[in-house]
Amino acid sequence: MRLLFLAASLLLTSACAPQQVSVTTPATPSRGPIAPGTPASTKTNTVDPGSARVAKSDTAARPAWLKARIAAVLSERKRNPITRILRYQYEDKDVYYQSAPCCDQYSQVFDTKGKLVCQPDGGITGKGDGQCPDFEKNKSNEKLVWQDPR
Predict the structure, then answer these.
(1) 3-state SS string for the chain
(2) What is the rounded CA–CA span in Å between residue 9 and residue 11?
């Protein structure tokens, strides 16, 4: 009886143990008929949470304050998600957007002299500090300045 109880306990323990599951969407279309209600295949692998959009690279010289910000990021441990710095046109001016290090932290937008303009997203609400609520809608001319290579 004791052996039966031990075997049943082992079976339940292994059946209830957390399992790692990997879900992917195929990057190539199916060759056979698709069942009704089945989502269409995508052209990119959806396992990668990164943006499918690739920004053009910014080839302009980096100001000293921006080089210092990059050096500060590199002096810390690698962040997840990695830090990206993008240049945009916003309110007819060049601005630099630095992605948030994680979770509910704010991303930051700086002017060309390194002065903080606003924090357009992040925080508990995800809507930033409220100083530029139209940033996402009105930013333009995206250029990738730098992203952490580690």
Answers:
(1) CHHHHHHHHHHHHHHHCCCCCCCCCCCCCCCCCCCCCCCCCCCCCCCCCCCCCCCEECCCCCCHHHHHHHHHHHHCCCCCCCCEEEEEEECCEEEEEECCCCCCCCCEEECCCCCEEECCCECCCEECCCCCCCHHHHCEEEEEEEECCC
(2) 5
Identify the residue whose tokens are 């100001």: 63
**CA 118/CA 110 separation, integer angstroms:** 7
Per-residue pLDDT tens over the stretch 30-56: 555 655 665 555 554 444 444 445 667
pLDDT digit string (tens) for 54-74?
Answer: 667 777 789 999 999 999 999
